[in-house]
Amino acid sequence: MDSFIKWPYINMEQEEIEDIIERYFKGLTSEEEDQKLSLWYEEMNLRGKDDSGLRDEDFQTWKKQMLLKLIKQARALKGQNHLNFTVQENVENDKKQNAAEKGFSWNRWGWAAAILILFCFSIMVYRLQFQKSANKQQVAKEEMQGLPGQNIAAGHNGAILHLSNGQVILLDSLQNGVVTEQNGVKILKDKNGLVYVGQAKETLYNDITTSRGQQWSLTLPDGTKVWLNAVSSIHYPLAFNGKDRIVSIKGEAYFEVVHNESQPFKVQVGNTMIEDIGTEFNINAYDDEASIKTTLLNGSVKVSAGSGSHVLIPGEQAETDNSHIIKISKVNTENVTGWVNGEMIFDNEMLEEVMKKVSRWYDIDVTYSGKIPNRKFTGSISRKLNLSEFLKLLEFENVDYKIQGKQLTILP
């Protein structure tokens, strides 16, 4: 593989620098590798004009200056898959919004060499520039333990299966293979989630639920594929024996339906019914959201609420409540379904909405000290980032916070 960029001093390949950064993050680098990193940063013009005399209380200001230099360097790199993070301030006394690009636009080498650099940077430079006389390995461990949110990992594949006989099975603790057999139907776990094989002799129901910090996927008895986001559930039969195939959900789910004109597929969400007409669609129906949002990617669906109904076309989203259809609008479907592809996408969203997603995915409680900051965010990040890496992005955007255990408080 060709080198991503040549470093005149140390001539390290992209893969080598990524590997060292990852191992540095884990406290596993040698003194020689630490020196390489120091030279690498020096080559990237990340050293201050004269940082030797900086006081500890000046560190935060100095760190932000260094981060700006890092981003400026990264912007110059060519490549694909850019992450753009934009923040808008809402002006209360003026109806117009002042949008301000904050500079998050860099070539994404992978989380180890882009987002991870931002996270590692303050620790790494602090060690290399301010604690040269300290024991390196011990300092690294102490700093890692003291970082807010450091031990809160990103969400993972996991769920609970509730069988019709009352048995409860923790799916993420099982190896691939046969989970159980019910009424002539084998329930299998594979790399893609849960699969039902066989035809049930009578109608029995299963439920799958995900908690905060979990996601899951399954293939229903008719071959329809379902992805569940965090804090979600689906109730479904082991066999679709009636004139309709009906399931019900809470939270958020994405469907790829196997179409059957003689046996329509329907999703019940409270008083809203979504009927497949050959379809891929997403449903967002969290209890803490004001409405149920059904977004169509392919095919068509009929959305009914109260006495009203509407057939969506691809790219449309229906918002409903328990009594009626609120509105139909055109949306960017990639933004809506980013979670299925491992991305957390914000599309001109208020900070409060952003933090709802963060709370669900990282299994944390979010509160606000005083008035909720009136700001909007647009951008995307990988759902693989741990919480501390995400918080570094917020910190750079001047969103102040404090975290204790699993309690994150946003400050005014």
UniProtKB/TrEMBL annotation:
Species per Swiss-Prot/TrEMBL record: Arachidicoccus rhizosphaerae
Membrane-spanning residues: 109-128
Key words, A-Z: Membrane, Transmembrane, Transmembrane helix
PANTHER family, A to Z: PERIPLASMIC SIGNAL SENSOR AND SIGMA FACTOR ACTIVATOR FECR-RELATED, PROTEIN FECR
Sample GO molecular function, one term: sigma factor antagonist activity
Coiled coil: none
One Pfam family this sequence matches: FecR
Annotated protein name in UniProt: FecR protein
Annotated ranges, domain Protein FecR C-terminal: 344-410
Sequence ranges assigned to domain FecR protein in this UniProt record: 207-302
InterPro entries to which the protein is assigned, alphabetical: FecR, FecR_C, Ferrdict_sens_TM
